[in-house]
């Protein structure tokens, strides 16, 4: 029953976040909270930083006349939209400025943590059941690596897998970030869709990565690992592996329904003979199990000749089977660590592979962070230096394949990488360089 004039007077003392919250109370509050006069005042105060009184007096008359014209010419909510657009644009510019600093070791942004802190960025998953009801899971555990971020969610009240249809992964930031106050989950937030996964027939259509006494792991591309309780059709945890390449952009610049699409590469003119093929490529490779690092290595001067292109793939040999000087020992026993509120475990014979392949200019050419499983090979080691069981670990996506070969040394209880070969799709190469291999 309070008159609108009194409510508008009260609303005029609120900040932008409080105004947005008040607008969700009911239809009348929504209309009043969209008042152009209130939002124009907020917009003007954000447009002009604090100045001394004598500077403001000279512009006061002009500001009043412009303000009156702006109020009468614009529709309801216009200055609210303008204020939000201005604030979010300035926020995105500030975050993207931090991402421009590249690590010469990996070729990726080196200030990811700082950018995430400035943006108030977090990640959530939304489970949607077959009736359209959504279940939001927040408060994940984060594990930072050199080139990737592992995000783990677990809980005790998740819906049964039988009724679930999709899982969506979102990056979430405050709509109006303020570094002076911590992010509020109840405040207005912006959602950026990173990936969507279909959960129908999950156990039949997904790749089985491994299992221990309590859980079984299923891999969904790209980069998602779902842990199911053994003997039950219930999710124990969800683990997302996010590569740093375009991570901030995908987590901030997308919308709630459309994923962010990175700009196409602009090919540079190459004065080297085209028959030489790819040259001066660099690879940074991490193998980890979320909490422990098994291998962290960089490889330079990778190349291929035109004769190494066949069956739609360009072959890059990183570790040669016959060159034992480049064979790599693995630190520790390979496995993926997981945890819930009560239980912890380690699924052996699998790991997360973070691959960053840089082209001759140092630009990220092919990047991913995905779980990979090991399998015992039927052949035995033909190398005199290593007598033991041979294991293989293969990965494939639309851009290429990775083939790794290990030998298990029983005497020292360790794995040795004796072969590592990358197969890059010629479609990927052609679209990157605008050529035809």
Automatic annotation (TrEMBL):
GO terms for cellular component: SCF ubiquitin ligase complex. CDD domains: F-box_FBXO15. SMART domains: FBOX. It comes from the Eukaryota. Residues 1-42 form the F-box domain. It holds the Pfam family F-box-like. Signal peptide: none annotated. PANTHER family: F-BOX ONLY PROTEIN 15. This is FBX15 protein. It comes from Melospiza melodia (Song sparrow).
